[in-house]
Design brief:
47% of the residues lie in helices and 17% in strands. By secondary structure, it is of the alpha+beta class. Strand 8 and strand 9 form a beta hairpin.
Length: 621
């Protein structure tokens, strides 16, 4: 744990002052001048025993005093954090008016932290009381937007879910920590001419943000300043490459996992606005912004407004000349989204499940999140008096069930779009439900919606259903049970199609047909895919007539594993080679499956070939 100046202030000097006499503390903070004097005194006391080189300026230290109903909320803005464990913000909550009474005081710190697995910047909430020697971690918190953190704390105190995501206002130092500004700035300062500096910026586009220069002036030591970066940026503004560079920066912001997605996406939009001012390709800007707006909606930020804005932007791109559209679409994600997994398009609901709805939008080729193979959605619309009027059918597909589960856990608090959680029946490996209604702007109207999320193996489905604008006047209302049949059908589709996937690998369909005609071990030599345990289940999707053959294949595989070790070993090796060499299916799915087979064989067989195959599998996943 950090023992820096900021850490000592937040964990020792300030809480000691607060808990010694909470009412006196609140009274002092209620007076702006006296409150600042108290904070400055605590800050100086926190650094008194530190070497002079480790003391930090108190610049930026401020506080606000706010009455929220029966509670007083004190928000403290601290100097920029420098080390992990340093405070990013502090909020104090107590009941009363802070002048005659300040009881039940609770003290919360938003600390700078990193994910241990990825090294990405994050912020965690820590609570302290007068008895604790160490703080109590309460999990991941919001970005360092003091107002958002105060709202988050108030919901914690009230034992309610965290507030919905929003467009945050973050300080300049946030970008320095979230995007490794120190490393980027060191490389930039080592460059001695414009060409070298441009190469550094191409590798670290975050240097184009003015906030990085502002933060550099706070964090740089030894007489270094941001002046050369500011001059470089001013010079680049006059160059034709500035607009495309802004597009690269916006794409980086939109696709990074570090820090706050809401903050990063919001900043990407302003970067695109600046790019447009410098005559950047407007079609390309619109395509990127459409993706950004869609991502904002998907994490629950102004859902309706951002979805509608994304639709308008995409419509504008469609009106551009074909060549321009190709450039825009190709640049919005930086990667090519081919057909990939042959099951992908068939995972979505279609007219057979939604016979009375019209398909209003089909976006099955969106940029997938890190670790995913595909992402996309199809939107449907019905009559505005129906209880289920607007349906957005979203899918994510991953190489493995473990990757899908990890993604779902990582977006657990955002995937419900800020709606209250509801009880949900188990429809797959994991099922979540959310729903609620809020009053509309016009009297007698409301906005009601339901969400059901289902994970089936390596696929995640999200069904968003909105009530028709005139449904209440027609005597109809959206009920939480209404989307469940569609969610159940989505789960059944996934089970069916993911099983069928293996028929596309290693001529699996031909192998299944031949084995059904003549179940024989001899077919393994020509069709190693028959050694795959999942193929028996895949055969069942071909119809009831294949059930006996599927059972016979299962018995053959069991016999090989239990009684014919050498034959099982040879069949597995040939199967792994088939999976890695197949070009008609998704290589990452096949490599993940091959890796599972190889690691099992390594535990049972000391032949070095398995170690070689394991390394090859790792390289392809």
């Amino acid at each position: 744990m950090s023992r820096s100046h900021g850490h000592r202030f937040a964990n020792e000097a300030l809480p000691e002052t607060l808990f010694d006499n909470p009412l006196a503390f609140a009274r002092t903070l209620a007076n702006q001048r006296q409150g600042l004097q108290l904070l400055v005194s605590a800050w100086d006391r926190a650094g008194a025993l530190l070497p002079a080189a480790d003391r930090v300026s108190r610049a930026g230290l401020t506080a606000t005093f706010e009455q929220r109903g029966a509670f007083v909320v004190i928000q403290i803005v601290v100097p920029p954090p420098r080390e992990l464990g340093d405070p990013a913000a502090i909020v104090i909550v107590g009941s009363g008016d802070g002048v005659t009474r300040f009881d039940g005081v609770q003290y919360f710190i938003l600390e700078l932290d990193v994910h241990t697995a990825t090294g990405d910047t994050r912020f965690i909430v820590v609570s302290r009381n007068e008895r604790d020697e160490h703080g109590t971690p309460l999990g991941e918190g919001p970005p360092p937007d003091t107002r958002w953190f105060a709202d988050h704390v108030c919901e914690l105190v009230a034992r309610r879910p965290p507030p919905a995501p929003r467009m945050p206002v973050v300080p300049a130092w946030y970008w320095w920590h979230a995007f490794r500004g120190a490393e980027a700035m060191r490389a930039f300062l080592a460059a001695n001419d414009f060409a070298s500096q441009l190469q550094i910026v191409q590798r670290a586009p975050i240097l184009l943000l003015p906030e990085i220069a502002d933060a550099a002036d706070v964090f740089l030591t030894g007489g270094a300043t941001s002046q050369s970066l500011r001059e470089f940026r001013d010079r680049l503004r006059g160059d034709p490459s500035f607009g495309p560079a802004c597009h690269v920066l916006a794409t980086l912001l939109a696709n990074t996992r570090a820090g706050s997605p809401a903050a990063n996406l919001a900043r990407a939009i302003t970067v695109l606005g600046e790019a447009s001012e410098y005559v950047a390709d407007r079609s390309r800007s619109s395509a990127i912004e459409a993706d950004v707006r869609h991502q904002l909606a998907s994490i629950g930020v102004d859902v309706r407004a951002n979805y509608e804005a994304a639709q308008r932007l995409r419509a504008a791109v469609e009106l551009q000349p074909e060549a321009s559209r190709r450039v825009a679409r190709g640049s919005s994600t930086g990667v090519s989204h081919g057909t990939g997994d042959p099951t992908w398009s068939s995972l979505f609901l279609d007219e057979s499940e939604l016979p009375q709805f019209q398909r209003s939008e089909d976006r099955r080729a969106e940029a997938p999140p890190p670790g995913a193979l595909h992402a996309g959605y199809v939107a449907w619309v019905g009559h505005d008096s129906w209880p289920m009027w607007h349906i957005v059918d979203t899918r994510w597909l991953f190489p493995t069930a473990e990757a899908a589960d990890h993604f779902l856990r990582s977006v657990l608090y955002a995937i419900g779009d800020g709606l209250p959680a509801l009880h949900a029946p188990q429809l797959g490996d994991a099922t979540l439900a959310f729903g609620g209604a809020t009053p509309g702007r016009m009297p007698g109207t409301r906005h009601a919606s339901q969400i059901v999320v289902v994970r089936v193996g390596r696929m995640i489905a999200k069904l968003y259903v909105a009530e028709g604008p005139t449904a209440p006047q027609s005597g109809h209302a959206l009920d939480p049970a209404m989307p469940l049949p569609l969610a159940r059908r989505a789960a059944q589709r996934a089970q069916w199609m993911l099983a069928r996937y293996w028929l596309s690998v290693g001529r699996g369909s031909d192998a299944a047909t031949l084995f059904a005609q003549s179940p024989s071990e001899r077919l393994l030599a020509e069709y190693p895919i028959l050694a795959l345990p999942e193929l028996a289940e895949a055969m069942l999707t071909l119809g009831d007539g294949y059930a006996p053959a599927a059972q016979a294949l299962y018995r053959l595989q069991t016999q090989l594993r239990g009684q014919q070790w050498q034959a099982h070993r040879d069949a597995t090796r040939a199967l792994v080679r088939t999976l890695l060499d197949d070009r008609a299916s998704e290589p990452r799915v096949n490599a993940a499956c091959a890796y599972t087979l190889v690691t099992e064989m390594r535990r049972l067989d000391s032949d070095p070939i398995w170690a070689q195959l394991e390394a090859e599998c790792r390289a392809r996943t």
